[in-house]
Amino acid sequence: QVQLVESGGGLVQAGGSLRLSCAASGRTFSSYAMGWFRQAPGKEREFVATISRNGGSTYYGDSLKGRFTISRDNAKNTVYLQMNSLKPEDTAVYYCAARPAVTGRDRYEYDAWGQGTQVTVSS
Question: In 3D, which of 63, 114, 120, 53 has the Cα closest to residue 92?
Fold first, then answer.
């Protein structure tokens, strides 16, 4: 099973940008579709974005497309989330996750998770 470690979170002002990274261990990274989810205090974990195994297909949560961009580099075993025009409501812990084969929006379909990285957007 793949192990995942996120990085790149932090404190940013509204309107700013952050790029999150998720490094995966193991030799089978390219066999996994990858996703980003986020969880704000008192709320359920929410789908952010997903990307197919070869990076050719991407899908985003409602209202996030256009501000967030998911990408991956299979040679580096890394998936990224570029976040622009950040808003205070984007404040959450962001998790990357892996699932075999195809992309998906349902968190229960992912079987490997990172520990999360905190993103805080100040107004």
Answer: 120
Q: Which residue in 60, 26, 54, 45 sits closest to 110, CA to CA? A: 45
Residue 92 class from Cβ within 10 Å (0-12 exposed, 13-18 middle, 19+ buried)?
buried
Task: Say which DSSP state 49 is in.
Answer: E
Q: Is 80:49 a contact under the CB 8 Å cutoff?
A: no
Instruction: Extract the tokens encoding 2.
Output: 């793949």
Bridge partner list, 70:
81
Query: What element of type H or E holds 122?
Result: strand 117-122
Task: Answer whether residue 99 shows pLDDT above 90.
Answer: yes
8 A C-beta contact, residue 59 and residue 49: yes
pLDDT classification of 65: cutoffs 50, 70, 90 = confident
Cβ neighbour number for residue 76 with a 10 Å cutoff? 12
Q: How far apart are CA 47 and CA 15, in angstroms?
A: 21
Taking the CA atoms of 12, 14, 16 and 19 in sequence, report the sign of the dihedral they define.
Answer: positive
